[in-house]
From TrEMBL:
Pathway annotation from the record: Phospholipid metabolism; phosphatidylcholine biosynthesis; Lipid metabolism
Name the UniProt record assigns to this protein: Phosphatidylethanolamine N-methyltransferase
Gene Ontology MF terms in the entry: phosphatidyl-N-methylethanolamine N-methyltransferase activity; phosphatidylethanolamine N-methyltransferase activity
Signal peptide location: none
Bilayer topology annotation: Multi-pass membrane protein
Organism, as annotated: Erythrocercus mccallii
Record GO cellular component, one term: endoplasmic reticulum membrane
Keyword Zinc: no
Gene3D superfamilies attached to this UniProt entry: 1.20.120.1630
EC number(s) per entry: 2.1.1.17, 2.1.1.71
Length: 187
């Protein structure tokens, strides 16, 4: 059985009505919704490819938009954490370095996914008709399904631990839920 008392106590530190927290939740949930809707629309209409003159140019523009949105999401996440109280018992070297290690593993998964897939493979090129010659099965795909999503989630988890932030932990759960829904939608 799960001891919900600890979770209730932990999240008693989080003001979910704080405007910064709400903006962070909205930016977290918007990103995968945006890229999935735009990619499916492109797949059905080829409208972006027509506007940009080629599927590659359109994919690169969508990829750039996704990167900008990810920067906005990370900024909102960080600002929401900074505006909420820390969990004093976690504000120590052990938690900080554990978070740093988790973020490093997450970064390894994200970067190695990008290197294995390339820009168009990472940023939905298949929806633009830009197909890879074969399915990527090398690391990190040999270790984990959707390593970019779970690596990104690990980065946010580590960041939250580094800041001893209950709000960050709750926002990381929102990231994980958003990616889980995205995986179901994409599958």
């Amino acid at each position: 059985q799960v001891d919900v008392a600890a979770m209730v106590q932990l999240f008693g530190y989080v003001d979910v009505t704080d405007s910064g927290f709400i903006v962070a939740v909205l930016s977290i949930t918007f990103n995968p919704l945006f890229w999935n809707v735009v990619a499916r629309w492109e797949h059905k209409t080829r409208a972006l490819s027509q506007v940009f003159g080629s599927p590659h140019a359109a994919c690169y523009c969508l990829g750039a938009a996704i990167l900008v949105l990810n920067c906005v999401r990370s900024h909102c996440f960080t600002e929401a954490m900074k505006s909420q109280p820390k969990l004093e018992g976690w504000d120590c070297h052990w938690t900080y370095y554990s978070g740093l290690a988790i973020s490093a593993v997450g970064t390894l998964f994200v970067v190695s996914s990008f290197l294995a897939l390339g820009f168009t493979g990472t940023f939905l090129g298949d929806y633009f008709g830009i197909l890879m010659e074969e399915k990527v099965t090398s690391f990190p795909f040999s270790v984990l399904d959707n390593p970019m999503y779970w690596g990104s989630t690990a980065i946010y988890l580590g960041w939250s631990l580094m800041h001893a932030s209950p709000a960050g932990l709750l926002l990381t759960a929102v990231v994980a839920i958003s990616y889980t829904i995205a995986v179901l939608y994409e599958g």
